[in-house]
Amino acid sequence: MKSKKILLSNAYFYRFDDKQWNTQKPYPPYGTMLAAALLREKGYEVELFDCNLRHSPNEILKHLSRFHPDYLVIFDDNFNYLSKMCLNVMREACFDLISLGKKAGCTVLVNSADATDHAEKYLRVGADAVLLGESEHSLIEIFQSDFEKNETIKGIAFLEEGNLIKTSPRSQFIDLDTLPMPAWDLVNLDEYRALWEKAHGYFSLNIATTRGCPFKCNWCAKPIYGNRYNVRSPRLVVDELKLLMLNEGVKHFWVCDDIFGLKPNWPKEFKELLAKEKLKPQLKIQSRADLLLKESNIDDLVEAGLAEVWIGAESGSQGILDAMDKGTRIEEIEKSTKLLKQKGVKVAFFLQYGYLGETWDDIEKTLEMVKKLMPDDIGISVSYPLPGTVFHEKVKEQLVVKENWQDSNDLDMMYESTFSSLFYRQLHTHTHNVYRKEKLKNNLSIKSMLKFPVIWVKEKVSSKKLKQLSKT
Q1: Quick count: other Cβ atoms within 10 Å of Cβ 408?
Q2: In a designed cystine with 316, which of 122, 213, 252, 366 is the match (CB 3.0 to 4.6 A)?
Q3: How would DSSP label each residue in 385-447?
Q4: How would residue 432 be classed by pLDDT, with cut points 50, 70 and 90?
């Protein structure tokens, strides 16, 4: 029997999102590479069209014409929070990929957060099936059955005589150690290296050690990996780091887990294995303030190479944190930030404006928290209702004109918030400028600032006028 030829792709184009492209910090599509490795392990002939740095979906045509695949599998990198945002510009690009694949005679399969939430939209533009949620094993079953639209395959959606059919959900995959290492050889890492080194003077790659998040912030969507928390063994993670550090000369890694190092004793075993292999990576992770209060855990992470932590601080108002079901306290943000800084770890805050019920007083508390704690970096967004969340359920009746942002710099309020979209866009700029001015005033001389250039954004309104605008 002829072996199936499978072309994998993702549907995130950094160039289509000005905010993300301008940061010049692209990461390879880790989840797509993992799916490619699994298919290759099962004996299928596989190629990968990496959209991340491409200019247009049309660039897939040369792969379609040369490789002549039987299947086009658009398997998004679900380890990347940018994919979870479900931006219109990326959905439209995915629709283009679907169309091009069908014209080339491929059976087209799609897996992404947006496709999981809106399967019918993808099927109506030509996809043969949408793989819902965590889908590596659904993919294998489809190929083993030659994809007859079969309701015995769990976790897929397709159209039958124009009607949407969704099969029974697939159980969450638990044993991550049975998965192969991602197919790093299928991606042109030199393209990524050139961008990183030109913009930042170093090269960073991504790696995942877990899937899922057990916490229940009511605005956080988890359409792929859910609320369970499954972990790779420290041994396999170290093996992957060793491969990338020795073969590619990479030292800096973004650990793209929602929550890194949550499992008891995992960081300790991880640091010991790294020491045994004489590996000294620099790690950037994401975590929660309440998980970073135990000094022994932080010491293990630091010894493993922890260089930077992004904390989901969200707000300086306890009332807003409670409304979000965040489960953290302001004092925990303060204590963890101070403890990490004492250990020489950079601390960055994710901040979120615009949650339901937010007042000017809440905003002032957030600004004061930033000035008081002076994180090493901040990332600011406004609340964004994603399907499957408690937050979305509260506002979904208002999502009539617009359901998704066009790109990550959209910052449009799609529901009735306390203040207008204009106000929050101005607040976004104002917060960055308050932070930069405070950083310059408190921490850095003009000479040292030259090492860390910043872009000063001209504000359309002053702090005083912004407060006045909040009252209109």
Answers
A1: 18
A2: 366
A3: --TTSHHHHHHGGG-SS-SS-SSTT-----S--SS-HHHHHHHHHHHHHHHHHHHHHHT--HH
A4: very high
